[in-house]
Amino acid sequence: MRIAIIGGGAAGYFSAICAGENYPDAQVTIFEKTNKLLAKVRISGGGRCNVTNATQSIKELSGSYPRGGKKLKNLFTEFGTRETVNWFESRGVRTYAQEDKRMFPETDKSESIVACLQSEAEKKGVQVLTQTAVTGLTPVKEGFSLELNHGEENPRIFHKVIVASGGSPKRKGLEWLEKLGHEIAEPVPSLFTFNIPDDPITNMPGVAVEKAVVSIEGTKLKASGPVLVTHWGLSGPAVLKLSAFGARLLSDSNYKFNVHLNWAGEQNANAVSDHLQEISAEHPNKQIQNIKPFELPDRLWKFILGKADIDPEKKWGELGKKTRNKLTDLLTNDIYRVRGKTTFKEEFVTCGGVSLESVNMKTMESKAVSGLYFAGEILDIDGITGGFNFQSAWTTGYFAGKLK
Ligand SMILES: Cc1cc2nc3c(=O)[nH]c(=O)nc-3n(C[C@H](O)[C@H](O)[C@H](O)COP(=O)(O)OP(=O)(O)OC[C@H]3O[C@@H](n4cnc5c(N)ncnc54)[C@H](O)[C@@H]3O)c2cc1C
Predict the structure, then answer these.
(1) What is the largest CA-CA distance in the chain?
(2) In 3D, which of 189, 215, 169 has the Cα closest to residue 340?
(3) DSSP code, position 141
(4) Atom 22, ligand 1: residue with shortest CA distance
(5) Are the beta carbons of 92 and 143 closer than 8 angstroms?
(6) pLDDT digits (tens, 9 = 90+) for 98-116
(7) Which of 128, 217, 262, 387 is the Cys-Cys partner for 258 at CB 3.0 to 4.6 Å?
(8) Each residue of 309-355: pLDDT tens digit?
(9) In a shared domain, residues 199 and 325
């Protein structure tokens, strides 16, 4: 049997290795259009490769995918995060988990993952052709005829094909799959930070709040977690999570929306007001600037006081009801005008791609063309940051490689 894999990224390599393992007599060939193999794995996680996540809860895992999570649930029970860790460990790459559950190779070098995948592919006799783009794919009697950019005289015939060509930021890049009968979910970016041009908050880059709640006006979109102020606006895990869950909606708004911040985390206005009152009662003679509620960073606290027109040297005991209400409002519902986005450089993914409606999610086989399989980001699957995007590449690659 001849098996073609389109794309030499994480999903392409993983499915090629699995196919080689499942069909030892088959000839597996990876076609990679660039001269770089596993390029994203190499640069991922700032060169450390956040290879998976430490969660072993299928519910938490599937909930980390704004798109595709539910349909991945069953696949995760057979090949989830634990299996990923075991897979790499049994091949000599030990991993460790950070406090935030991100998992990295113990070497802290993505090269360990790259080398492992390449050596496994080599062991399985996988042929790898770089600078070889697949430019056309036609179903024929025996399987598929592949056209390559080299313009070979005789088309290459393969019995099975796995498409692992990654996310396409433009719909045009997916037209060839649409023509073959697949539904396409319009591609839009996911995982981006919010631009808040000309707002004085951007004068304090580096300020971070561990447990803020961010929500988007007029929607149910809400995320909690760390928020980071940057030169251009807002970033941090909570913002990235919100960008992922709101990817399509925010694209429709042309990235013009209002964001609401609760700097006090999950606490509501009543609880915050009570807390301010308690401080006033306990420290009536202390300057307001010197006691920061909710362990807010000094710069942010002074910024909020400025926004509320409160003299930072004023005493806590002098804080009247009206001013306290104003302060409560700013702490729990601080509003910013977002105008544009910045793609998160550490890890960005595309929302959209081949619709899961067109794929048998038990086997990863196309419902439109038998013998054609999908793996990785080409699918309408994407996760939040934390190793989830690689995890879906490993999981879908594992099942595509079964060629069932
Ligand atoms: C900077 C950055 C850092 C990231 N860090 C992390 C991280 O730490 N953890 C995490 O979970 N996720 C991370 N991600 C996301 C993750 O890298 C992707 O989700 C994952 O690489 C997708 O794998 P893939 O194999 O589906 O696609 P890709 O890695 O994009 O690979 C697809 C390959 O197919 C090739 N190709 C495309 N079309 C053709 C064609 N017609 N013929 C032949 N070849 C073709 C492409 O050149 C490419 O090499 C990061 C992403 C970026 C951009």
Answers:
(1) 88
(2) 189
(3) S
(4) 377
(5) no
(6) 999 999 999 999 999 999 9
(7) 217
(8) 999 999 999 999 999 999 999 999 999 999 999 987 777 899 999 99
(9) yes
With 0-12 CB in 10 A as exposed, 13-18 as middle and 19+ as buried, what is 92? exposed
Same domain, 118 and 228: no
Could you give the CA distance from residue 70 to residue 75 in angstroms, rounded to a whole number? 10
| 156 and 15 in a common domain | yes
**Residue 271: CB partners within 8 Å, gap ≥ 6?**
264
Domain of 56 in residue numbering reads as 2-188+351-400
Q: Return the beta strands (E) in 140-180 as ranges.
A: 144-148, 156-158, 160-163
Give the SS3 label for residue 234. Answer: strand
Probe target for ligand 1 pocket from 389, 394, 396, with the most ligand atoms within 8 Å of CB: 389
| Pocket lining for ligand 1, CB < 6 angstroms | 6-12, 31-34, 39-40, 43-45, 49-50, 133-134, 164-166, 346-349, 376-377, 387-390, 393
Taking CA atoms only, the protein residue closest to ligand 1 atom 27 is 166
Q: β-strand 372-374 against 160-163: which pairing, if any?
A: parallel
Placement of tokens 């913002």 in the chain: 239
- Cut 0.85: pTM above it: yes
**Among the listed residues 336, 101, 158, the one whose alpha carbon sits nearest the alpha carbon of residue 239:** 336
DSSP for 100-130, written as a single string: TSEEEETTS-HHHHHHHHHHHHHHTT-EEES
Spatial neighbors of 205 by CB under 8 A, at least 6 apart, are 229, 230, 231
Residue 146, φ and ψ in degrees, nearest 5: -105, 130
Domain count for the chain? 2
| Beta-sheet strands, E only, within 132-207 | 134-139, 144-148, 156-158, 160-163, 184-190, 192-195
Residue 96 to residue 116: CA distance in whole angstroms: 16
User: Residue 329: which residues within 8 A CB-CB, separation 6 or more?
Assistant: 269
pLDDT tens digits for range 132-161? 999 889 999 999 999 998 877 777 899 999
Q: d(Cα 287, Cα 357) in Å, to the nearest integer?
A: 61
Task: Choose one of 30, 35, 347 to mutate for the ligand 1 pocket test, by most ligand atoms within 8 angstroms of C-beta.
Answer: 347
User: Same structural domain for residues 246 and 303?
Assistant: yes
Residue that has been written with the tokens 């004068």 in this structure: 203
